[in-house]
Structure formats: C-alpha cells, structure tokens
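User: Predict the complex with pyridoxal-5'-phosphate.
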Amino acid sequence: MPEARDLPKIRVSMPHVGLDTAQRLVAALDMRWLGMGPLVKEFEDRIAAFLGAGDRKVVCTNTGTAAIHLGLLAAGVGPGDEVITPSFNFVADHQAIRMTGADVVLCDVRENDLGIDCEKAESLISERTKAIVPLHFAGIPCDQAGVYRLARRHGLRVVEDACHGFGSRVDRRRIGAYGDVACFSFDPVKVVTAVDGGCVVVNSDDELERLRRLRLLGIDRDTLSRYKGTRAWEYDVGGQGFRYHLTDIAASVGISQIEQAEAFIASRQLVCARYSAAFKRLDGLRLLREDFDDVSPYIYSLRVRGGRRGDLVEHLKARNVETGVHFVGAHTFSWFRDARRDDLSVTDRVCQEVLTLPLHSHMREDFVQRVIEGVTSFFD
Ligand SMILES: *Cc1c(COP(=O)(O)O)cnc(C)c1O
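Assistant: Here is the predicted structure with pyridoxal-5'-phosphate placed in the model:
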C-alpha cells in the first residue's frame, strides 16, 4: 500500500481535453485565421442551440468578466447607477460593475441555495438602482423567479451571472434561454472551456449590435465581414469600445467542448449525487443539494460546521486531495470597503464554512472514492 500522500494529487478542477480538442485546435491553426472569424460565429450558433435560446442572441467575448462588463453596458448601466449583487460572488462581478462607472451594492444570500436573498435585495433598492446581478452558485439555480418579480416591480434590469450554470435548468429550460441578460464563462476551469472565453445572451437586435461594437473597440459594420474571414476597409467608430472579442483558436476549443457538454454534465451530476449520498449522514456537514437532475454542476461545495473547515482541509491535503474555497466575501476586500451594504450575516457565516471538493468531467473512479473516503474518515 502506498502512503496516502504519495497517491496522485486530485485537483479541485481539471479540464477534460482529449484528442478531439487537439484535432479541432490544429485544424483551426491550419486555417491561418487566428483572430475572430467563422469559428467564433459557429461557437455562438452552437451555444444558442445548446441553450435552446430560440430568437435570443449570443455574443462571444474573450473572458466571462468581459461578458459581465458588456452585459451590464448593454443593460444601460453606467456612472451614477447602483447595481445590487451578492457579496458572496466572484470578485469579477464586483470589478465589472465598477468598470461601468456604477457603484456596487452588496447583498446577503439565502441559507438554502446560497443565492441572492430577494427580500434583503429589495430593502437595498434606491433611486439610483439600475440592475441586479444574481449568481447561480455552483450551478444551483438561485431564486430566479423572485429576482425577476423584484426587477419588474422596480423597473430594474437583470444581468444573470450564469458562469456556474452552463446547462442548468429551471422549469425544464436552460438558464440563458429566456429572461433578460445572461452571461457565461468558458475559462480554463469551467464545465465547457475555450481556454478563455465568455458570452452574453440578449433579446434584441439593438443590444446585439451594441454588444458587437462594444467588444471590438467600438468599430461599426465590421462583424459580418470578419465572420467571413475578410476585413472591411471602411468603418466608423461611434463610441467607447473594448478589445474583448474571442479568437477562432479559442472558439475551436470551445466547439470541441460544447459537443461533449451533455456527457460532461451527466458525468458530473453522477459524482455530485454520490458525494451527497455519502455525506448526508455526517452531522458535521451541511449539504447544498442531494438531487442534481436540473443542475449542471460547476463545483461541489458544502458547508463544514463547528469551525472544523481548516482541519478537514489539512486531513484531505495529507491524502493529496486538493480543496478550494468559493468565495471570500467581497465586503472583506479593502477595494470594496466603501461599497454600500446591509446585513450580511448569512454571508459571513457561509464564508467561514464553505468548502469545495474536487469535481471533474468523467472523473476517475479511484479519485471519487478517495474523496469520499477522505471526507468520511475525517468525521468517523
Ligand atoms: C468564472 C467566473 C467569472 C468570470 O469568468 P472569467 O472567464 O474567469 O473571466 C465570473 N463570475 C463567476 C461566478 C465565475 O465563476
């Protein structure tokens, strides 16, 4: 028997990239059009088809952070506005809100799904509030209906951070297939990766055109020719823009991944269900979910009670099992010290307790067993 610490390291996340991805990538390089071109258009079409987005429009960006920034701009967020989002969220969102010139307002989350608390969000609404940015944490849908009710009542836009939920369903429909603005990430550790990338999903042609200009330095009338792999000589620049477009090289990886997305998600659902079945008898833990049928699990997170998170992390580390923490609350960062907020008591508690265990697409069986054995042996 090898010592536990000599067993191969189990990383928190590991992309599934095989020969098919390598072949797509080489074929893309062979086209000698490395920038934004026909493969970006194909990736956008495949994303729309995967989501079942119907008439909604998909615009790819070079990162998920860029997608959120542009999603906010498309929703009309700008200087002087306020945007409400959970403090329990990735700092990309808080930074993207500030990039628009708007102020971040930090909201608490609910105990059950760690999604935005709509009652507390309502009490944070002011005359300056323009939008709400809810997060579907770990792929588990937040109180989406509650968020849209709140937005309708107060005339606010909703920019969903769906970076954790590519493929998750609410009432049988995939997140992003309906609603206001939805943003996804295809960064190296997301369920579907394009090495780096992201996309925004919107409803109108106006927003689509606006997003296309914003992502390419404000350049007008150029996208269609680029999609065909040609360049237009004449164009106008009518406003602020950013260098946020995706490359065909990244899109080639994204295409190879999205073809396997259903299988990735199914394999992750099985592992999550096995984790929850194995851990639900452990008093020292609080699980987020047991049933993952509608969830596209990005990470498997749970809460460790009784101040024992650090000890569990060490116990797993000795078995060469890596863990992660999603998230550190944004209200604890010096950069967001001045951000308006109200009661964040659930967030404070959750940030002390939450722990992420390894989860991969097509995860090795011996890895799954080692994670389960590592956690249960700590409590037994
Ligand atoms: C990954 C992620 C982002 C940002 O995406 P990038 O592609 O890494 O820029 C934003 N929000 C959440 C919740 C994320 O997990």
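The first helix runs from residue 19 to 30.
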